[in-house]
Write a structure and sequence with these properties.
The chain has helices at 3-12, 17-32, 34-48. The protein is mostly helical. The N and C termini lie far apart (62 Å).
Length: 68
């Protein structure tokens, strides 16, 4: 079955919101791949993650508990 025929058959199929979300999620997962999704999640976690600074790094104006 050709891709155009599959898309036409899918667009004619009746589905509820739950089926639509399942299908959309599976297509997204297939297009991006599991490694791509994991990479995005890890990069977002690294940007918003807690920093592990030493006490020497916490010197200067505004770096104490009262300066934050």
């Amino acid at each position: 079955m050709a891709l155009k025929e599959q898309i036409a058959a899918l667009s004619q199929k009746e589905m509820d919101r739950k089926d639509f979300l399942k299908y959309t999620g599976s297509v997204l997962l297939a297009a991006v791949g599991i490694t791509g999704i994991v990479r995005v999640i890890l990069s977002a976690h690294q940007q918003t993650g807690t920093s592990t600074r030493n006490q020497e790094d916490l010197s200067g104006y505004g770096m104490s508990a009262y300066g934050k």
